[in-house]
User: What shape does this take?
Amino acid sequence: MTPPELRDLLADALALWAVPGRLRIAEGGVALEGMALRVYAADAADRPVRWWLERPGQRRPCTSVLGLLRALRNAVGAGEGEARRLRVALAGAPDNISLPGA
Amino acid sequence: MIPVSVITGFLGAGKTTLLRQVLRDPRWADSAVIVNEYGEVPLDHDLIAASEDAFVSVSTGCLCCVVRSDLIETLLDLARRRAAGEVQPYARVLIETSGLADPAPILHALMTDERVAATHSLASVVTLADAVHGTSTLARHPEAQRQAMLADRILLTKSDLATDTAALQAALQALNPAAPQRAATHGAVEPEWLFTQGRLPDFLEASARHSAGVASIAITREAPIPALALTLWMQGLAEHAGARLLRLKGLVALAEAPEKPVVVHAIQHMVHPLEWLDGWPTADHRSRLVLIGEGIPRHLPARLLAAIEEEVLDSQPPDRG
Assistant: This one.
């Protein structure tokens, strides 16, 4: 993911969490103005770490973009919000599935 | 499995009229009906006047608020009586919700209760919209919007009384482009169209629409998607969009078996078990996903999917062949 793509994704996430903030590309990553937060991709040598979430005096590793979003959400104080865990329904398939045109 | 269809629609949309018409059809008379009335006097029971012993009325309040106790127990009790031969062996269950009900908790209950899931399957969600008052109802009542957004099929009722349904159809289309619409007069409509479509892709031509905080978002992908990426993406949406994600439908080419498309169907964070088709229904083999949600940035789902997919592909070991 390029820095502009990362910026756009994080901007969408902030909007989803109703967190005001302005993101800008900075130092190879993305900075959230006003909160002293910066996100940037980890070097290949750091694997399994893929992302770093950096704030003054602290740098948090994230092994996936989902982990990054979770960490960012906590960092900006959006909390759990309406968070739900994906659940698979128990119900089986209906007997009467039909294909269009079948 | 006994298929269960849920019939929703705002107050006065004509749900009872529809049920009465459906039950008059000899091919559909073997339906058990559960009616949720919001009031002390179960008028709808008398209005429907079903001839089947299996008819059941629930009138203890709004079904979505007491769903786990009343609806589940009613379904199970009905199934017990069916098994014991105390009622005729009905072929399906039709649930009429109250006009004020949010269908989501009802659908969750049907999909997650182990006892119900052992014998029943959710077949379809049908939403009725009054062609005369529907536009103003949608504008004024969030309940009506959610009913439309969660529908598999939308039936326009009282269309013979309306001079122009274009605005209503456009509003419904904006709320739920994945749900086909059809007009009915006095409940006259083919029950097969309403209740037997299963969960397959009527939504393939759906495109992104937006209205007043509600968005339907369409994603089309040329390349097959790794199963892990699809799963993580749905988890990410559930985690971050929460209850604002109302529906997700898709026909997806998985990288592991692109010749057998998988049907994805979720109601909020509840996902039906994936279903694989033997082949593609048309010559179009692209993955197509449609989300309906409230306040979800329109590009977020596609951007998130791309980011996850990139990580998943990057994590796969190199092909040693």
In short: The longest strand of chain A covers residues 22-26. Chain A touches chain B at residues 1, 5, 8-9, 12-13, 15-17, 50, 64-66, 69-70, 73, 81-102 (CB under 8 Å). Chain A has two helices and six strands.
